[in-house]
Amino acid sequence: MCIPESAMSAHRERGLTLVELIMFLVIVSLAVVGILKVMTTTTRASADPQVRKQALAVAEALLEEVESMPFTTCDPDGYDVSSGTCAMPEAMGPEAAFTGQPAAEARGNATAPFDNVNDYAGFNLAGGGSDIGGPSAVVVPAGYSASVAVAQDGALGPAASPLAAGVVLRITVTVSYNNNNDSVVLQGYRTQYAPTSMP
User: Fold this and answer.
1) In Å, what is the CA distance from 74 to each residue of 49, 80, 150, 167?
2) How distant is the alpha carbon of residue 148 from its chain centre?
3) Helices (H), 121-169
4) Does 6 have pLDDT greater than 70?
5) Average pLDDT of the chain?
6) What is the spatial order of strands in the sheet that 145-152 belongs to?
7) Are 70 and 76 in contact (CB under 8 A)?
8) Using CB atoms within 10 A of its CB, is residue 102 exposed (0-12), middle (13-18) or buried (19+)?
9) CA distances from 144 to 49, 57, 126, 156 (A)
10) Whose CA is closest to 155, among 121, 189, 182?
């Protein structure tokens, strides 16, 4: 009995060989692993925008607070209202040298509060408090920390005649998070005004 060629050909094409089946399983497994890896990375990073947004909110609030403080030639505590004179020029850091001024000013202190942009130089905030006081409410959640640097900067103004370094301050606020592995840095500038008048 003779089997037609077409019947033999159809019989050979049925099913998969063991090699083909193994190759199919390997390719599908690699595709599934790749998809799961992308999903894991996406899920892990999905909280990052919220964490960074919180750090940015803290940095913005603190920078706004510092920028809203006076920056005059005469320290607010050293201005004599009766004579209109300046008993103490403003300097970087707390005004401990001024007679009658407490040895240390503190943010939110009722008797000796920060009263000038310079007072925030080297200021640090640890996280975890509900409200850390001061002229504005800046809430630093647990796991975050904030620091302020204030430095003279003479690069502001037209290139031909920039402002003198002594009348320009660059304020840098750094908020660290994620175990200090990540940070948000904001900068702002203040220029001096009202040399000897009441701030």
Assistant:
1) 43, 10, 18, 12
2) 11
3) none
4) no
5) 76
6) 124-126, 145-152, 168-177, 182-191
7) yes
8) middle
9) 15, 12, 7, 31
10) 189
pLDDT tens across 56-72, in order?
988 998 999 889 888 87
Find tokens 């009658």 and name the residue: 100
Give me 44's structure tokens: 């892990």
Q: Give the phi and the psi of residue 166 in degrees, each rounded to 5.
A: -70, -15
23 φψ region: left (φ > 0), alpha (ψ -120 to 50), beta (else): alpha
Which residue from 81, 76, 150, 80 is spatially nearest to 115, judged by alpha carbons? 76
Tokens representing residue 28 in the block: 């599908």
Amino acid at site 52: R
Kindly report the number of other CB atoms within 10 A of residue 184's CB atom.
Answer: 20
Joined together, the tokens standing for residue 23 give: 């190759």
Q: How far is CA 130 from the centre of its chain?
A: 19
Q: State the average pLDDT over residues 71-86.
A: 70
From 155, 164, 175, 170, select the one nearest 92 (Cα to Cα).
170
Length of the chain: 199
- Give the phi and the psi of residue 40 in degrees, each rounded to 5: -65, -45
Per the listing, tokens 């690069």 go with 155
Q: What is the mean pLDDT of residues 142-169?
A: 80
The C-alpha atoms of residue 135 and residue 110 are separated, in whole angstroms, by 11
